[in-house]
Design a protein that fits this description.
mainly alpha; two-stranded antiparallel sheet; 2 strands; 2% strand
Length: 196
Amino acid sequence: RQVGADEFGGQPRALADRHHQPVAVRRYRGLRQCRLEARQPEALRILSGATAEMCAGELAQVGSKFDLDLDEEAYFGIIRRKTASLFAAACELGTVDNPAGERHAPALREFGLQLGTAFQVTDDFLDLAGTERETGKTLGCDIGQGKLTLPVIRLLGTLPAAERDALRAWLVGDAPVEEKKRRVWRMVVDRGLDTD
């Protein structure tokens, strides 16, 4: 079913995903309620806010699966919520119960957002270019699950219309994930998009 914006306190709509979304929806709703109703300590406020942001980012990403028109602005919006918000919270938590904390909290939060964004962009490039031995995790998951990441978005943006349409059709096709990963990475490197 489609989840309406009213169920998320005005947050963006996302298509329900029976494996990921119900848990994220419950967490998001519960944390949002906790944040709004409770007078909680600063650390709990920071953590519940970050968790709600992460859930909203995950829901946005689930809703954008196989959206081959996803642009950089939407991509950065998703990773800011899904990943960077956690880094921001970790940095901001260092200011709790610190006499100078209130003064430095905004700068540390911004540092965490930037660090988290850089981390996620790097992770997205490694998902295509890395090896499982180097990264210690399964690779090619994003491309296999229809999640557009920065290298793919930029690649699609550089291609002439006919090539772009052909690549889009191939990406949603039945080719093995490893083949998709290799071909896309080769195209990214050939166009110098690995160094931008």
